[in-house]
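Memo to structure team: turn this sequence into C-alpha cells by end of day. - J.P.
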Amino acid sequence: MATDTVEGMSSHLRGLTVTTLAALSGLAAGVAANEIAAGAGDRLAVAVLIAAIVVQFPILSVLGVDIDDFSAKDYLFVAFMTFSLWFVSWGILLTTAAL
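Reply from structure team:
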C-alpha cells in the first residue's frame, strides 16, 4: 500500500548500487594500475586491485547499503566484478600502450 513505509533500499536498488560501484571501481583500478605499475609483471597492480575491492565496503555503507546482511556470495560478487573489469581495462591499456 501507499501508506507502508520502506526501511532501507529495495533489493533492486541495492543490487544496482553494488554492481555499479564494483564496475566503476574495477575500471578505476585498471586505469590506476596502468599509471602506477611499471608493466604487466609488476605486483603493485594487484595491490591496486585489492585496495579497490576493500575500499568499496565503507563506500557502500555510506551509500546506504546494509553490508551487515552481505553473505559470502555478495563479497565474492563484488570481488569478481571488480577483478573482471580491472583485468579487461588494464589489459586493454597495456595492449594499446605497446602499439
